[in-house]
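INFO batch 0412 | record 1 of 1 | parsing
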Amino acid sequence: MAEPTTGADGVGESLSEVPALLTELHSLLDRLGEADLARCSDAELIDVAQATERAINRMTFQGNRQVLDLSDRDVPRAMGFRSLANFMNAHLRISDPGRRRAQLAATGRFRQLNGQTGDPQYSTLAVAFAAGAVGAAHVHKTIEILDALPHRLPHDRKVAAEVTMGELAATHTPAEIGELGQRLLAHLDPDGELTDDADRQRHRNLWLNRQNAQQMSKLTGHLDPETRALVEMLQAVWAQPGMNNPADPQSPRGSIEDADPDQLSAAVERDRRTPAQRNHDALAALLRAVFTDGLLGKSHRGLPVQLIVKADLNDLKREAGLATTATGSLLPIADVIRLAADAQQYLAVFADHTAVPLYLGKAKRLASQGQRLASFARPDGEVCSAPGCDQPATQVEMHHAALDFAEGGLTDIVDLAPACPKHNRMVGHRVGQFTTGVYRDGLHAGRTWWRRNSQPDAPPNPEQINRRPDIAQLYGRHLDQTRARIHPPGTKAEPPPGRNTLQLTETIPPPISVVEARLALLVLAGTP
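INFO prediction complete | emitting tokens
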């Protein structure tokens, strides 16, 4: 067995050739970036573009292979990440970890319980992916078709279908793969006799996707027949013209069967919504009714089951900007003000302002509802306090950050921090676990720090906090720098000092509640 080598500086050198190969690869990429494409003929440029795309596909496959090896070694958990997807997104900077994990599951060679490496789920597709003949989009569309194969299909027909789709993926576009795949599915099960409840249960799903720049979210999913029938009934009785129109205060709410005929007739005349918009408004009205009736329960992880929002007072005064919900969503301030008129209110509570007990000492181990609300209202309190974690306030526990409760820690708001269940279980005294604490003063006063426990003789790891960048402050600094370059000091075009400069919008402790903000606005409105 080869022994580790030692360099001139005394630091052990890698036995693997991979780091050197990657260094060589990046050097080649630098040379490619500086190469003059103008000297290529049209035919040569086509060949260059094709070869580049093939190299990109091959590198994606190699990246998946390395992620799989990291997963087999349990490296993400050892580094303190709550899951492989969290590690891929936060540390490896993979933009769509869900899609990459699907590629891994379909084309990766997983380590079995006996220590051996198994074959890929779709071997033909894996070979084409490794050779660069197919790209990520081809793989995704092919997996979509192959995953739709009925589970009752005989094994030999499944294998033949996988080989067929693998060959098609290497010679057709993703859109064509989808069309050809549907034809293959129709050929395998023309009468739908092989599809049963097990297939429907396997494919049912519903995804609420991330918000876009307009704070809109796309809802995608596959509904089983029963759920589809229920949704259709909702649309039939709640999504009719004139019903549940948020833009019309006189629009009847609830079911069309309970609406006043004259009121409904007038509302129909005013209704300019499309059928899709009416479907959206019916779902929103149903959810509001569910919350109002308390069907979701009274408490979730110590928080009330209601819409909980924190906002900056300056944004509320300007009626512009964004607020943050306990589930991590962004809500326009205009919607916050509108909702505050008739929503069940939850104030931000603080020891100096209310009688809500925020300092429970040793009398209680679990945080109170008031403490949970106060924790959410703090800067960055909408997510887990562990570095790089984005689990929202509705999915966290309250962690005794200064000292564990079993070791004499107190259940006081100044010693508590939000922590998702996985990170909360990673705190301990063993090597590889986390130690936490609370900054009492300085720039990060009140925030919880996390530090990975190192080996006994090794230097301590640095303390880290989960602080999100202040976008307004960052943008304001770059805006000032840009203006300084375009209009140097002393020129006539220089903007007046302080004008149009964005200010820090991070919630300033203690945060203001919606109710207090509305009272402040009323006071300001009556001030000469």
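INFO post-check: The CA atoms of residues 475 and 502 lie 8 Å apart.
INFO record closed
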